Amino acid sequence: MALVPSPQWLDTGNNAWQLAAATFVGLQSIPGLTVLYGGIVKKKWAINSAFMAMYAFASVLVVWVLFDYNMAFGEQWFPFLGKPGLATSASFITGQAIVPAAASGMPPLTFPMATLIFFQFVFAAITVIILAGAVLGRMNFTAWMIFCPVWMTLVYTVGAFSLWGGGWLAGMGVADFSGGYVIHLAAGTSGFVAAWLVGPRLQADREHFPPNSLLMTLVGAGILWLGWNGFNGGDPYFANADAGAAVLNTNTCTAVALLVWTLMDKMAYGKPSVLGAVNGMIAGLVAITPAAGYVDGLGAIAIGVVAGIIPWLAMNKLQKASFMMKVDDTLSVLSTHGIAGLTGGLLTGIFANPDMLMYIGTDKEAPGVNVTGLLYGNANQLLLQAEGAAFIIVYNVIATFIILKVISFIVPLRMDEATLKVGDDAVHGETAYAIGTEGE
Questions:
Q1: Which Gene3D superfamilies does this entry report, sorted A to Z (predicted)?
Q2: Confidence at 362, pLDDT banded by 50, 70, 90
Q3: Number of other CB atoms surrounding residue 319 within 10 Å
Q4: Does residue 433 belong to any structural domain of this protein?
């Protein structure tokens, strides 16, 4: 085989970090959320919940390379959407990475398109997997099979292009460093709508839904936490100072939120809860995501404190109010992702420090972008953040409602009562644990 030198534009260090970061984010989904879901639900739903995550990961990748990547990051078609197109040709995936609609503010990246396509795929995949947490324990698997690729194509791509692909929200100046709006607010909002339309679990399951394995849940939570280093550390697109700052801020905020949530549990219920700590961890990870590269260390701590309080109140008070209990959001995705993402996005508009310059490149002379928040004299940024959030919320509510209504004309959204009583064995012919059975 003939040896061909690497093109001059390819920086092996940046490419290596980007591929590693993408792998970390992929690990958040499989096995991260796969085993977290499998462990946190009632025993009879362990296989179904884990399989929902694995199926979503696979189905999203197929539509991503066929047309969704270009809808999210390709040539502009509408102010909120790119032109659908294949992302599979040899010349396309081996060429130099670029985001066409955002190219005016960003030089060509120093790694191949294949790296960028895969990096953005793992973000897309985890979004619909997070959404799944709202409908665990009753959604018809066939309906889920249809929903995942359709929702990805018609909903996720719009938010991604609008904020990250050079679309209209990016042009306005709305800031979302790594997905507080594109991923978490979208998943929390759409998940709540899905939980409403699919309907609740069996009443017996709602009243008694103990985790079948807290230790498995913690394994998934740990993968999720450390995998977030790729989530926020990979978004500068370069292995530079911004990546390091984003990683440090991410872990600092998450630690603070976990401690505050645990303290809230202790004060409210008298006992610190490991499940509560996991929820606090998730809320911290989510809240820092839109701000990770835009705030300094004190900003990260402040966001962590708020992330330990506001989502806690949303989960333990708001979602337990009688009018909210009509919607069975299994894992309180609205609180830990939707409310946490909204909180982090708005706090970005307050705490964003203009001295946290995000360099577009690795050269000291490379152009940079910064975001200035209310605390540093720019009240307009907070208003922009609110406007961006409003668009994501309204679009996700309407589009998700329509998609699920259409699917409901094809297949039922909810399993039948007999299947709901049995669980995994009725849905998949499999059980999570063979101990005490003939398969032992």
A1: Ammonium transporter AmtB like domains
A2: low
A3: 17
A4: no
> In angstroms, rounded to a whole number, what is the distance separating the alpha carbons of residues 224 and 250?
12
Q: What is the CATH number of the domain that holds 271?
A: 1.10.3430.10
pLDDT of 209-233, one tens digit each?
Answer: 999 999 999 999 999 999 999 999 9
Whether the predicted pLDDT of 48 surpasses 70:
yes
For residue 78, pLDDT over 90 is answered with yes
Q: Across residues 156-174, what is the average pLDDT? A: 97
Look at the chain and report how many structural domains it folds into: 1
In this predicted structure, the answer to whether residue 91 has a pLDDT above a threshold of 90 is no
Nearest 5°: the CA angle 72, 81, 134 is: 65
Percent of residues, the chain, with pLDDT higher than 90:
90
Residue 103 has what pLDDT? 74
Query: Does 12 fall in a domain?
Result: no
pLDDT of residue 108: 81
Cα angle 258-262-264, degrees, rounded to a multiple of 5: 120
Instruction: Please identify which residue in the block is written with the tokens 């109010």.
Output: 321
CA 176/CA 180 separation, integer angstroms:
6
Residue 174, sorted as left (phi over 0), alpha (psi -120 to 50) or beta, turns out to be beta
Asked if the structure places residue 235 within a domain, the reply is yes
Q: In terms of C-beta density within 10 A (0-12 exposed, 13-18 middle, 19 or more buried), how is residue 62 classed?
A: exposed
pLDDT score of 440:
44
Tokens, residue 428: 């998949």
Q: How far apart are CA 359 and CA 68, in angstroms?
A: 28
Structural domain containing residue 64: 30-428
pLDDT of 1 over the 70 cut: no
Asked if residues 276 and 335 have their Cβ atoms less than 8 Å apart, the reply is no
Query: Residue 366 pLDDT more than 90?
Result: no
> Is 18 part of any domain?
no
Of the candidates 61, 87, 89, 62, the residue with the CA atom closest to the CA atom of residue 74: 87
Q: Specify the amino acid at residue 401.
A: F
